[in-house]
């Protein structure tokens, strides 16, 4: 059984195309300094999706009240996800928290300033070109980048990733993964990403 993290569904067969960025490609986007604020904002939105696994509409709908702080001081997103119409809690990596903090006074009522998906995808093509990436970059690739490049490549368990993605029926074990276990894995992931900078 192949789990298609990009489409949020399970399918039989093999994955025939790479829809995620490698760590090297991701690093090129992270390190690039843009002259244009519109490209910088869209880059940050894309990175936020890479660090959370959220789809465009979920990010667009985020409000400041969606951020909650746990007893251990970690920040979580508490949202009603577009893809599931159910409440969901997602621990935030430090990289995602930094993006939230950067745009806390963004002049809108939303958590992050989010242009239309058409503009976002058009700007991502400019970003890919400026970063020397030979690919047709679109926002939806961020979700698979979170699963494969950020998560699995850094030893986050598939069960935890499935839980974060909302694959409640992927395995009976995924429904029993505790918030404490997810928080622990995400904290370890934050530390790994910090040392990889």
From TrEMBL:
<dbReference type="GO" id="GO:0006310">
    <property type="term" value="P:DNA recombination"/>
</dbReference>
<keyword id="KW-0233">DNA recombination</keyword>
<dbReference type="InterPro" id="IPR011010">
    <property type="entry name" value="DNA_brk_join_enz"/>
</dbReference>
<protein>
    <submittedName>
        <fullName>Site-specific recombinase, phage integrase family</fullName>
    </submittedName>
</protein>
<dbReference type="InterPro" id="IPR013762">
    <property type="entry name" value="Integrase-like_cat_sf"/>
</dbReference>
């Amino acid at each position: 059984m192949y789990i298609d993290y990009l489409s949020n569904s399970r399918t039989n067969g093999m994955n025939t195309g790479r829809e995620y960025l490698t760590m090297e490609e991701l690093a090129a986007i992270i390190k690039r300094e843009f002259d244009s604020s519109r490209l910088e904002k869209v880059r940050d939105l894309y990175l936020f999706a890479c660090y959370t696994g959220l789809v465009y509409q979920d990010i667009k709908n985020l409000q400041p009240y969606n951020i909650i702080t746990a007893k251990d001081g970690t920040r979580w997103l508490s949202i009603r996800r577009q893809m599931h119409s159910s409440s969901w809690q997602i621990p935030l990596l430090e990289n995602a928290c930094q993006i939230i903090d950067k745009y806390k006074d963004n002049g809108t009522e939303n958590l992050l300033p989010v242009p239309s998906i058409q503009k976002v995808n058009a700007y991502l093509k400019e970003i890919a070109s400026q970063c020397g990436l030979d690919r047709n970059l679109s926002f939806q690739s961020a979700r698979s980048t979170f699963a494969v490049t950020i998560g699995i490549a850094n030893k986050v368990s598939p069960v935890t990733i499935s839980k974060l993605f909302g694959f409640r029926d992927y395995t009976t074990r995924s429904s029993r993964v505790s918030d404490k276990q997810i928080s622990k894995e995400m904290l370890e992931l934050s530390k790994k990403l910090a040392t990889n900078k």
